[in-house]
Design the sequence.
């Protein structure tokens, strides 16, 4: 009897071969930069392809608009309106600390640290002295 190919025959993969599993990637909305428009109406009527987002700059008013279309052609586009507000930039003073100035500050901090260590040691000595003098009084009373 001839050996015919049977497409319905079950196939058992070898245990050591890696299984291919396709990864599903979620599509992302594409942003296509800024487009200058004369009015909000032009931005609202501008055609946007599914899965895209377009940002508009109004030439005659301080507004920016964003129109985003979902991935389905049946989705309604979302339209957002932003008002541009100018803010004053605060000047940041330049730090002109030279190495010599930094060394001088470090020296001042070291002197202050030494003074604090001296005060701490004096406090520790004062705390130890009353305890020893109290013991001596008790010993002499006996």
Sequence:
């Amino acid at each position: 009897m001839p050996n015919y190919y049977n497409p319905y025959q079950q196939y058992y993969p070898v245990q050591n071969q890696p299984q291919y599993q396709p990864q599903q990637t979620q599509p992302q909305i594409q942003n296509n930069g800024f487009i200058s428009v004369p009015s909000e109406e032009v931005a609202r009527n501008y055609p946007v392809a599914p899965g895209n987002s377009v940002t508009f700059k109004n030439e005659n008013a301080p507004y920016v608009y964003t129109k985003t279309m979902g991935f389905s052609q049946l989705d309604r586009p979302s339209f957002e309106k932003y008002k541009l507000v100018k803010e004053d930039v605060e000047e940041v003073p330049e730090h002109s600390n030279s190495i010599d100035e930094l060394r001088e500050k470090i020296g001042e901090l070291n002197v202050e640290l030494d003074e604090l260590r001296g005060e701490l040691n004096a406090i520790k000595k004062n705390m130890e002295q009353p305890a020893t003098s109290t013991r001596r009084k008790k010993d002499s009373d006996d």
Observations:
- The first strand starts at residue 30 and ends at 37.
- DSSP finds two helices and four strands in the chain.
- The chain has a mean pLDDT of 80.
- The beta strands are 30-37, 52-58, 63-68, 78-83.
